[in-house]
Design goal:
The chain is of the alpha+beta class. The chain contains 5 helices and 8 strands.
């Protein structure tokens, strides 16, 4: 249910992309439904709760409230390193109360910064980015939200967050404690 559970749906996608859960729809849906109540405060998803839940699921995770320029640079760095990023959109742009989606790419020119996303549902309410968006649905076979692109400054706006998550790194075992 990416329409009402965009936070947990985005988290499940990131866990899948980091190899922490299976790639099939049923596994991802079950994980999103399991996590959803744990990211809410009075019915609203909070980024610090999402970070905590991603950590609980085994990911190295943090959230970042930054200026649009700093967020853009962090997003590029993460994507260039092969790590998807959860983006919280501004209110009344993609949905009335804000929205979560997963950034998997970007395009940058001298006068344009586009973020390429897996959008779990969305319903474009903004005024930019026309003809690139086809609202996803809740069926397991839908691919409409894949590779949707948005103008980053419009979607991100002021007072929004990026949530980074990655599979934890494994350091080499050293010392005499190993067999």
């Amino acid at each position: 249910n990416g329409d009402s559970k965009c936070s947990a749906t985005s988290m499940a996608m990131v866990l899948t992309m980091n190899g922490l859960i299976g790639r099939d729809y049923n596994t991802m849906a079950a994980k999103a439904n399991e996590m959803y109540p744990r990211v809410l405060v009075q019915g609203v998803a909070y980024v610090y709760k999402m970070r905590d839940e991603l950590r609980h699921q085994g990911a190295a995770s943090d959230y970042h409230g930054e200026t649009t320029n700093d967020a853009w640079h962090r997003l590029k760095q993460e994507v260039d390193s092969g790590r998807p990023v959860i983006v919280r959109s501004a209110d009344s742009i993609v949905t009335a109360a804000g929205h979560f989606m997963v950034a998997v790419g970007y395009r940058e020119t001298d006068n344009s910064r586009l973020v390429i996303t897996y959008d779990p549902y969305g319903r474009w309410l903004g005024t930019c980015c026309t003809n690139n968006y086809d609202r996803n649905d809740t069926t397991s076979i839908s691919q409409k939200g894949r590779w949707v692109y948005y103008d980053f400054a419009t979607v991100f706006g002021a007072n929004n967050y990026l949530i980074t998550a990655s599979a934890p790194t494994r350091s080499a075992v050293t010392g005499s404690d190993h067999a």
